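To: structure subgroup
Subject: Chain for Friday's discussion

All,

I'm putting the inputs and outputs inline so they're searchable in the archive.
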Amino acid sequence: MKEGNGAIKKMMIIISKGTLENVYAGFVLANGARMEGIGAEIFFTFFGLEAIHTKKLEHLHVATVGNPAMHIPTMLGGLPGMESLASMMMKKEMEKIDMPDIPEFLDILTASGVKLWACKLAMDMFHYTKSDLYEGVEDVITVGDFYNKSAGEGVHMLFI
């Protein structure tokens, strides 16, 4: 971590998609920040809320349609079972490198001091309540509240 002017003091990560690859990207970045002594907070909005919804967080999938990194034609990616197959294969590869599953990763993040926030607008839109969410979620807040928490020197915001 760079000292003095320009030092990163806190990462504010916005997760807007509930795909396995996007959620893990946000979790890895938040965890990496904490390991470097940098503060980290995650704001879950729109489909990103699935990563903290207790009934959905263990059922996230890899996006096979519209994902050029999959290197498969869109038509094939849309076939029944392709998303499940790709997700199963990715989870198997993640197990090989001892990557925690979503519930365990959430426990690791909150234990390390990462603050988790749910977007009020998206919560209202999907008719979710705070009781639907992983217990480590600090609160349901507005975008304005999140911006206020992002104020200060050395704060970086990342949208995933």
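Points worth raising on Friday:
Residues 20-141+151-159 form a domain with the Hypothetical Protein Ychn; Chain: A, fold (CATH 3.40.1260.10).
The two ends are 22 Å apart (CA to CA).

D.
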